[in-house]
Amino acid sequence: MPRLKSMDDLRKLREQVEHEIQSRTDTGTSITVGMGTCGIAAGARETMQAILRELAEREIDANVRTVGCIGMCHREPLVDIEQAGHPRVTYGNITADRVARLIEEHLKQGTVVEEWVVGRLSE
Asked: In terms of Cα–Cα distance, which of 109, 72, 122, 110 is closest to 94?
């Protein structure tokens, strides 16, 4: 995190955090990208950038965050999608070129992309 040098910097940080909290509360949508060294080596940075671009282009408000390795290195890049009232779905091998379909089918249509699922965790 950059050093805060003024009250204006603090206000901007506060607004950013409030927006993130509000998007989590309002949308109930959270996307987590595995960014351990194994994920990065498999293309997780590009996947993360593609997710952020796709969400912005489609004007979808979601909380996007990163985590380290969870031990399924052979299935990286891993992406979890959590939506209020639905089980958390973990997708494997989500390269940047798969992101548009993932966002369209899972977030827009509400359909799980079954062939990419590596796990589900109910609430």
From this structure: 72
Q: What is the pTM (predicted TM-score) of this model?
A: 0.78
Q: How many other C-beta atoms are found inside a 10 Å radius of the C-beta of residue 15? A: 10
- Superfamily name and number for 28-121: Glutaredoxin (3.40.30.10)
- The DSSP symbol for 94 reads -
Q: Would you write out the chain's pLDDT as a tens digit for each of its 123 residues?
A: 568 788 898 898 888 888 876 766 665 889 999 999 999 999 999 999 999 999 999 998 888 999 998 889 999 999 999 988 788 999 999 999 999 999 999 999 999 999 999 999 875
CA 76, 95, 72 angle in degrees (round to 5)?
10
